[in-house]
Request: fold
Amino acid sequence: MGKLRSIPRHPLYLSRRPVQFRKPHRLLFRNRELPNLPGRGATELKNAEKEISAFRLRVVFATLLIFACFSVLFGRFLYLQVLNYDEYQSAAEDNRISILPIAPNRGLIYDRNGVVLARNYSAYTLEITPSKVSDLEATIDELAKLVDVSPKDRKRFGKLMSESKNFDSLPIRTRLTDEEVARFAANRWRFKGVEIKARLFRQYPLGETAAHVLGYIGRISEKDQDRLEEQSLDSNYKGSEYIGKIGIEQSYEKELHGQTGFEQVEVDAGGRAVRTLSRTPPVSGNNLTLTIDIELQKIAEAALGDRKGAVVAIDPYSGEVLAFASRPAFDPNLFVDGIDSSNWDALNNSPDKPLLNRPLRGAYPPGSTFKPFMALAGLATGKRTPEQAINDPGYFNFGNHRFRDDKAGGHGLVDMYKSIVVSCDTYYYMLANDLGIDNISKYMAPFGFGQLTGIDIDGELTGVLPSVAWKQARFKTPALQKWYAGETISVGIGQGYNAYTPLQMAHAVATLAADGLIKVPHLVRTIEDARDTTKRRLNDPPVPAGKPTRIDIKPEYIAFVKNAMAGVVKEGTGARVFAGATYTSGGKTGTAQVFTVRQNEKYNEKHIAQNLRDHAWYTAFAPVDHPKIAVAVLVENGGFGASSAAPIARLLLDYVVAGKRPDKLGAVPEVGGVASGGADVEAESD
Amino acid sequence: MINAAQLKRGWRLAFGQLDATLLATIVILLCMGMTVLYSATYDTPARFYDQMRNIAVAMLVMWVAAQVPPQTLMRVALPIYTVGVALLIAVAMFGAVRKGARRWLDLGVTSIQPSEIMKIAMPLTLAWYFHKREALVRTRDYILAGFLLLLPVGLIAKQPDLGTAILVFAAGLYVIFFAGLSWKLILPVFTAALIGLGCVLYFGDQICEPEVQWPGMHDYQKHRICTLLDPSTDPLGKGFHTIQSTIAVGSGGATGKGWLKGTQTHLEFIPERHTDFIFAVYSEEFGLVGNCALLLLYLCLIGRGLVIAANAPTMFARLLAGSISMIFFTYTFVNMGMVSGVLPVVGVPLPLVSYGGTALVTLFLGLGILMSVQNHRKLVQT
Reply:
């Protein structure tokens, strides 16, 4: 720089571009002596020489830097390889001192009453490291002569191999008998790269029960490994082979896994440990106590039986999830050792989708269970008063479209109480039309419709709370993006674009039951320190910042709607199922259309394929004063909510409120069938 | 029949563009590299043959690059740079995440790593810029050059890819240095860096407490530096690399344990032993003598590059050749320093020795440019 400074700095003087005299007066003023300058060629040559010598000087400095740095390296080599050679030589010699990770015991999972839902047991496995084996097939064939290796084991091993790195040690057989262990040990020398290892296995003693809550663990895949590396957790998983894949096992992985310990051991030339030098013990993972009452869970699952469906029960004042059932389910034990392909195909390809977590990831139109919330919106906006009544002719005309009520001829004079008790469609067609879609979505959102509930397992579906903005974002073309007023009308009875998960429904009912108190539903009640079981943390997730903790609607409106829901049980669509109950409860039946019945046609169950039959809903809370439980029951293709979903809810309420167990666990039969007689017709229509 | 003269002429036509000194050094380095690689990939020989293919491709790239005159390079400098930066921005926005870093751009058929382009595009552009501003250079040019440099470096560091960011940053810095950045600026920064380094070494224990957050750095980057200061804090994780590679180097002794006889290597104590940590394998098997030989070869390579730079006729050629030579030095120093435990673990391969096609092609492209500068020096001088 110093050298360059001496050169007269002038853009014209040195520029190689042709000079453009765009502003001659200014240039002339500043460069008065320009024409008298000496020839450019000589100066340029001189400049170039100066530049080159400046550059060469810099090269010399760079060379000095190189020598300095290389001297540091040379010094370091000298230090390591000559001065401290002995130390490193022996370090390598006892490398041999190898550091072995010790995997921690995974935390246990209990139900709220202390029943074990997930535990560990120790067993021997026979493992192969594929990279150390020259002919894998032949080795497995040889092994099969010593221990029992079924085709299923081989298939599973193949699947594991495709999922893991070549130098991992993979089990070909788990749970070896003592005899098999002894037989292999005697022949061990014949098998390079094959070892017997004592491993801890995860077991879910109740099998399918609560499988969708617990989830399962499985072998750490490359994808898991990448994620662990990303979070810098990979060193804590050095000795671990399993990681939570879904459910509680996945979402509480950090609590359950524990801290990996390690020991320094001396190994012989073959890599076998000879002597332990030091040991940092692992710290077991924390134990979890769930909010689930496994008895209630069993009742719910048994009640659904072979039908597809979901049951979610929540304690309204704490947000604790008491039951979270999804049918059909799967046995999580199948996944622990790596599921074999035939089991996997059976689960994955089944049309009943047993792997689908229905309460969490199934979105269904809510049908008439949406009506109490619509009524609240009507009250809150002042569009309706409780006393205001309509005359229901059995249909609502909008433009040239006729929206029909389930009951031909209509319900006559209907006020808000009656509209909920008899589940009058016409009332809600009108109300929806008066409210408009954005008002509906504004008052529904705080109840959690179309919002993530924030439950503590992953994969929750948002559902759809339709609004003008939602449609705008959902569709691509302007024609599809436009919201039509006619679309609002079916939203009023829980049809149209509406789609919510059973968890969202239960959460909404719980919020209503607790007089508008919003609690985040959660599945884990306490987290217990593994080292000191007296240390427990209560898990009570707060409502996320920026979200309301209470519904902003007058308490008397909420009380009115709750009372109307109690009316459903006393004298409405739920009355028959709850006859003889020793406690008070509020409820709402719902029937969600899967199949659109064409105009002027009548829905006839018998003529419609099973998978297009309506979904049955029942939402409930009990007792009416200070409820202990809020529940949502969904039976896929169950037909009428009152006949197939309500009886299930009754069993749950009986257990929680009255402490009554069903005589025998099992599927609940449908109540009623097609009813006859005036009052019953009303009871069946929703 | 072809006679000797024709053969000679044919040879010169095909290979005349290749600088003999450089070529000889490269060939020796490659031979040594393949020798170690054979040992490092003893269990997975497929890699050895893969690398042969990589070398063939890279050689071809070098040959092509040697034919391209610097004037052409000058013309394409800015476009390449612009495309590179655009791709980096694309990566930041919708790049594929692998191993926790967003470095790749998925093109459907193949995926590319645009940061690799910057390793050459950076010195190319800055050299072009300073050439354009030749003898007009003022402070604001350095500021602009600094911006041209820091934009892509920032994007790369954000991915995060510390190794590549350092290399690209160094490449640009060398150009600016050779272009004549004032000593008044270099000395204080250099001194400050040295003092900072001293502080980190001295206060290592305090600043590595888990609660302490380092501004502008990912946790894992802090972790790497802290692990370097005290590898025993994380014997299962990153510290393992440093501990084991240091043992490998040290146990090599003066003359090494002999080819294929490195216990650290063959008992699988060295991670990444065919890529970034291949020097540990080499060092263990060939000892101090081998290390010195390797250092000398690199010196020879870098020195030849600097000579080419010093003899280059234009500012552009000088800066470009100088920067490329110094890049080789940076690769070598950072890699050997990391393996022998004086520098933190960053993903920088040992040039011409580590396994891996992308880095090899980039390096040979650089070598090809050096050769081109050497070849075309007379054509420009008038």
User: Anything to note?
Assistant: Chain B touches chain A through 65 residues (CB under 8 Å). Residues 99 and 160 of chain B are 10 Å apart (CA to CA). The radius of gyration of chain B is 22 Å.
